[in-house]
Amino acid sequence: MTIATDYEGFIKLLRSYPRAMSNDYYLPSWIFKMIESRKLSYSASEDALFLFERRDGFTKLVFHLIGGASELPPCEERLASYLLYRENSPPKASADWLLGGGFRHVSTSARLIAKKPIVADSMDGIEDASADETYEMMRECFDATDVDMPDSELFESAICVRTDSGKPAGVLYCGRTQVVAVAQEMRGMGIGRRLYMAYAAMKLEENKNAILRAWVNLDNAASLALHTRLGFCPDGALADLYEK
Questions:
Q1: What digits encode the pLDDT tens for the residues 139-150?
Q2: How far is CA 8 from CA 26, 29, 211, 212, in A?
Q3: Is 191 helix (H, G, I), strand (E, B) or coil?
């Protein structure tokens, strides 16, 4: 595997592979961040390009295949791969390739979208959380692969509600996806709702026509119930998580 160090060269390589069988995509700005921090490695051949995004606790695998016979390059680390698709068109070829390569299906998440206006609460009691605080809370609440979040160094921003002692009781991470994490002993107190409403207030202040979206694990009944109360509905986009 080769560590990507040249942004323009890597983008040119990435575009040379068709997306007929691919399990994810990267925005150019995110690729730049990963290359800059030396978090992106790759293995390329005539018929396949494999991307390895280094994370805390696992490595995220992305593949672009021209043919279906390519084998995964040797990798001793824990791997996770996400398949993104519409509800009526699951990526069967990609799923079969992963399962045939020793991966197992772990979970399915649904993308939700707010179908009715959310009346945003005030920002009272909402504070900024540092990357370290957010990372610690996320690791307390989730396994490394439960949510598609980056290493602590690449966190973009987060908001939180704090306890009387000043420690975050819950955080909402606002990166490529929005993820809420609430400390076990603080659950059932409305913290998740407060954070989402504050996030809505921020987005609507930036753009009154903003569309609010979130990814929720289908096994997370509490989060699904919260989003339903806030007016979110599934929009048909799903993500399957596979691990090896």
A1: 888 888 887 777
A2: 14, 12, 32, 32
A3: helix
91 with 139, same domain: the answer is no
Examine the domain organization and report whether 109 and 132 are in the same domain. no
Tell me the residue type at 137.
M
User: Domain of 91?
Assistant: 2-113
* Helices assigned H by DSSP within the chain: 7-15, 28-36, 92-100, 131-141, 191-206, 221-229
Cβ(181)–Cβ(141) under 8 Å?
yes
Mean per-residue pLDDT for 109-117? 84
Helices (H) and strands (E) in the chain, counts: 6, 12
CB 60 within 8 A of CB 31: no
The 10s digit of each residue's pLDDT in 192-233 is: 888 888 888 888 778 877 788 888 899 989 889 988 888 889
* CA dist 104 → 79, 112, 127, 243 (Å): 11, 25, 39, 5
Give the SS3 label for residue 223: helix
Asked, for residue 244, whether it belongs to a domain, the answer is: no
Rg (CA), the chain: 19
- Confidence grade of residue 33 (pLDDT, cut at 50, 70, 90): confident
Is residue 225, in this structure, part of any structural domain at all? no
- Residue that has been written with the tokens 């989060």 in this structure: 223
* Contact indicator for 168, 133 with CB cutoff of 8 Å: yes
Domain tally, the chain: 2
Q: Which of 128, 121, 209 is nearest to 173 (CA)?
A: 128
